Amino acid sequence: MAGSASGWEPFYREVRRVPRGRVTTYGEIARLAGRPRAARQVGYALAALRSNATAVPWHRVLGKRGAWAVIRLTDAAAARQRSLLEREGVRVDASGRVSLPEFGWP
DNA sequence: ACTTTGACGACTG
DNA sequence: GCAGTCGCCAAAG
């Protein structure tokens, strides 16, 4: 589905704006990109990044639950995300959740 | 050109 | 707190 993501650039731009040590949500990215209700498209846009080697800090984009959405979190992947975030100074809960009010961006 | 498919969010009951 | 529904938009087949 998401081969060449030329139409997602606005979303990527917003994700790149997220400063180190901060996290944001799909909804925020969508809102900032001018699509308040297109959170789904944000997730899809980020999914396309896996195929393209685009430099976007997707690990800073979390779901509203403060975790990496509802996808099938493999233990290895979850640990990797947690490690990346903690390395940036973001506290991760034991359940793998982040305090959005505390580390959320903006 | 049409249908299906997704890293989701907000709202309702 | 949980389950169901709608909205969103681009790419793949």
Give a structural overview:
With 106 residues, the chain is mainly alpha-helical. The chain contains five helices and two strands, in the order αβααβαα. The chain has a two-stranded parallel sheet. Helix 2 crosses helix 3. The model has no long low-confidence stretch (mean pLDDT 84). The protein binds a DNA duplex (13 and 13 nucleotides) through helix 2, helix 3 and strand 2.
Question: How are the SSEs ordered, and which strands pair?
Answer:
Blueprint lengths: L8 H9 L6 E2 H7 L6 H11 L11 E2 L12 H13 L12 H4 L3
Parallel strand pairs: 1-2
Helix pairs in contact: 2-3
This protein binds a DNA duplex (13 and 13 nucleotides) through helix 2, helix 3 and strand 2.
Question: Can you give keywords for this protein?
Answer:
two-stranded parallel sheet; 5 helices; 106 residues; mainly alpha; globular; single chain; DNA-binding; 4% strand
Task: Describe the structure concisely for a colleague.
The chain has 5 helices and 2 strands, in the order αβααβαα.
| Largest sheet: number of strands, sense, barrel closure | 2 strands, parallel
Shape: globular
Radius of gyration: 13 Å
How many beta-strand elements? Answer: 2
Spatial strand arrangement across the major sheet: 1-2
Number of helices: 5
Helix content: 40-55%
Strand content bin: under 5%
The ordered H/E elements are HEHHEHH
Task: Report mean pLDDT, rounded to a whole number.
Answer: 84
Unreliably modeled segments: none
Q: Structural class, from secondary structure content?
A: mainly alpha
Distance between the termini: 31 Å
